[in-house]
Every structure is written in structure tokens, then in C-alpha cells.
Design a protein that fits this description.
The protein is α/β, with parallel strands linked by helices. It has helices at residues 12-21, 72-76, 79-89, 94-108, 118-128, 142-146, 151-163, 172-180, 229-242, 257-266, 280-288, 304-311, 322-325, 342-354, 356-373, 376-395, and strands at residues 2-7, 27-32, 44-47, 112-116, 134-138, 166-169, 189-191, 216-218, 247-250, 272-274, 292-295, 315-319, 335-337.
Length: 396
């Protein structure tokens, strides 16, 4: 097949997925909405900014490949302001972007177009109305956060769903929401982890048992608008009051001024390690050194870092939201908490620290769960079969 991806080419989620299809059987093209490092084997790579992504206004949570360019606005504008600008003013850029995208699609003449997330790759691709079948991936908070952010983005999302030929979501909740927002029930859909699954050569459990002390708690979600880091940092002193030797490790926070302010404000510098962005391999090593992984999210699909940590044997403590309940049964293979309540989070961390039997039980359950539902090779084989189904249905 000749496949055209419309995606943020910096994202490891997108790159992980796209890389699977770069093989002799396929001709792979990428239109990236941000400056993107090259992927070996691509037939073509074109950068087409949308909603001020060329000005560096995307959230740092989206900027996940080292070396991605940062515009002056990205460096100067606070995260909430960047999000506000993209959500409210970003749609004004659509007409010009769509015209360029139409020309790019016409030049490639793909058999399949795969746009990865609705805001804004799926929206602009739907507006471009490609002749080839359009598959769109729904990630994390496309519907619950972005589509609900303002009436215009919501309207564009619903319009895009009406012309989407096939849908990929990373949780059952988003498939349900897609149908409620207008995606026709008779069109093909598949639920698979957004990154294509977990690679067992990177994310695997340690063969040596971890000591119970000092407890190591990892918060790998970085700074995003839907991650309650305020609650996380408020919970740390509450945990240290009971278990003062606890260590908190925070990748992707070393260069966040607000994180340093909270560390100073709560007097927890001796217990918190703020790390820069780390590679996938380093994340695997980090998860194998920790007992507990946190996800203090108010909006989410299936977080890749949560599955990666579970594959490494970390005990998951996550915000109690619908998509997470598809993976975690509280008290069986993890604990859920109110992501708006620091005491609820602190209680869950303390419970996890004190209950080594529960951690051991969850470790066994979660390794099997990830292997069964989220292993990279079988997940991507399902994705490839889904591509074939879409193209053959169009040709019939």
C-alpha cells in the first residue's frame, strides 16, 4: 500500500506506529504538523504547521522527541495560554492549511490516509476530503478535553467524524463517544493502544526483587493541561509525613519553573528528583527501579507510560476516570484516586507503599494484562489487518 500519515512527526507515539509500516511492502509518506526529525525509510516528509504549531505553541507534553524546534512563543507563553490560543484561534488557520494539504495529498495519491488525533490533524484532513479512505486515530483527550474546549472545535470534530471512513481509538470510552458525536456505527473501528503497543525488549520486569525501602514513586506524565501536578506536589508532604524516606522521581520536569517553585514551596527538595526528558530505554530502566507509578490525570485515554510502567512491574496509582477503569480494578491490580484531591492521592500512595502483597499481586496481573492486550507485535499485526480491511472495503 501507499500510505500517507498526517501526524506530529516528533511524537514517539506516532513514530512508533509509523515505523512499523516502513517496510518493502509499503510506500510510506508523512505530512508532519511540526518540524520533525527524519524517519529512515520514508518515501517523503513534508512539514505543514497547523494552529500555530510552527510557532512552538504546542504543549510540552506533545514535544516528545529531543531536538524539536521551539519558537519564541513556545518559550514565553505559559502552558494554559498556549492551549487557549490554539483552541480558540487555531481554527482560523484551517482554510490555508487545508488548501496546502489537499495539494500534498493529490501529489502522493495514497491508497490510505491515516490522521493521528482529531485536533488538529484529523480535522484538517477531513476538511481536505481526500479521495482515498480516511482513517483517524483518537488519542487520550481528543473528545473529553479538546472537543469540549469551545463550540468551534467541537463542531469541527463532529463534522470530521461524519466523513471519517474508519476509526482507531485507544479505549472503549472514546469509541462510545465517537458514536455519540456522529461517527456512523456501520463504519469500521478498532480499539488498540495508541502507540501500537508495548515493546517487551524495552519494557520488562527486573529479574531481581526491589527492596521495599526507600519507596520510589515515579510521576512520568510531565506537564500537560490535564495532569494535576498541583495535586501531585501537594500530596508529597502528606506522604513524607508518614513515610519520610519516600523518593519521588519526575521525568520531563527539570526545565519546568513551576515544578521548582512547588519543590521550594513545600520544602521537599531532598525527596524529589526533577529529571529532563529521557529516552524510551531510560524510561524502562527507571520503571524497573520504582515501586509505584502515578497518573494524576483528569482527562485521558490509555496512557502509554502507564502501560509501560505496568509491564516493568510498577504498581499503578491513577486518577479515577472511565478510560483508566478499562485497565485498572482498584484494590486488585492498582489503586484509583480522586485526581482533584491531594489527600486522596496521598492515601493511595501510602496504601501502595504499605501493602507489599497487593503490589506483588498487581505485578503478576499487570504483566499478563499488558502481554495479552498491549504487546507491540500482535497489536500492530491487528493494525495492519485493519488497514487492509479498510482499503479492500473501499475497492469493493
Amino acid at each position: 500500500m501507499r500510505i500517507l500519515f498526517v501526524a506530529d512527526g516528533r511524537s514517539p507515539i506516532a513514530r512508533n506506529w509509523i515505523s512499523y509500516f516502513i517496510q518493502p511492502a509499503h510506500e510510506i509518506h508523512l505530512i508532519s504538523t511540526s518540524s520533525s526529525p527524519p524517519l529512515e525509510g520514508l518515501a517523503s516528509l513534508q512539514v505543514l504547521p497547523v494552529a500555530f504549531s510552527g510557532a512552538g505553541l504546542q504543549n510540552k507534553g506533545d514535544e516528545v522527541v529531543k531536538g524539536g524546534g521551539l519558537g519564541a512563543l513556545r518559550r514565553l507563553a505559559p502552558m494554559k495560554l498556549r492551549t487557549f490560543i490554539r483552541q480558540w484561534l487555531g481554527p482560523l488557520t484551517f482554510p490555508k492549511t487545508v488548501r496546502k494539504l489537499q495539494a500534498a495529498i493529490q501529489a502522493v495519491q495514497p491508497d490510505l490516509v491515516h490522521a493521528m488525533r482529531y485536533p488538529y490533524e484529523g480535522i484538517i484532513t477531513a476538511l481536505a476530503r481526500p479521495d482515498a479512505p480516511l482513517l483517524v486515530s483518537v488519542w487520550g483527550n481528543d473528545f473529553t478535553l479538546h472537543a469540549a474546549s469551545n463550540p468551534l472545535v467541537g463542531r469541527y470534530t463532529r463534522q470530521a467524524l461524519l466523513v471519517t471512513d474508519a476509526l482507531h481509538t485507544d479505549c472503549q470510552r472514546d469509541l462510545r463517544l465517537a458514536h455519540e458525536m456522529g461517527f456512523p456505527h456501520q463504519r469500521p473501528a478498532v480499539v488498540l493502544p495508541g502507540s501500537g503497543g508495548i515493546k517487551s525488549d524495552i519494557f520488562y520486569p527486573s529479574d531481581k526483587p526491589l527492596p521495599d525501602s526507600p519507596p520510589v514513586v515515579i510521576q512520568p506524565r510531565g506537564f500537560r493541561t490535564y495532569i494535576r501536578n498541583d495535586v501531585f506536589f501537594q500530596a508529597i508532604p502528606l506522604v513524607l509525613e508518614k513515610v519520610p524516606e519516600t523518593r519521588f522521581v519526575c521525568p520531563a520536569m527539570a526545565h519546568e519553573p513551576q515544578a521548582h517553585k512547588w519543590v521550594a514551596q513545600y520544602g521537599i527538595a531532598g525527596s524529589v528528583e526533577l529529571l529532563p526528558l529521557v529516552t524510551h530505554q531510560a524510561m524502562g530502566d527507571l520503571f524497573r527501579q520504582g515501586q509505584i507509578v502515578l497518573s494524576p490525570a483528569t482527562h485521558d485515554g490509555t496512557p502509554n507510560t502507564l502501560l509501560e510502567a505496568m509491564a516493568c512491574g510498577c504498581f499503578p496509582v491513577a486518577g479515577n476516570i472511565e478510560s483508566i477503569r478499562e485497565w485498572i480494578m482498584t484494590g486488585e491490580n492498582g489503586l484509583l484516586f480522586d485526581p482533584a484531591d491531594p489527600q486522596s492521592l496521598a492515601n493511595a500512595i501510602l496504601h501502595a507503599i504499605e501493602d507489599s502483597a497487593l503490589r506483588a499481586q498487581a505485578r503478576q496481573i499487570n504483566q499478563q494484562l499488558v502481554q495479552t492486550r498491549a504487546a507491540y507485535a500482535p497489536v500492530m499485526a491487528q493494525a495492519a489487518a485493519f488497514y487492509t480491511q479498510i482499503v479492500e472495503a473501499t475497492d469493493a
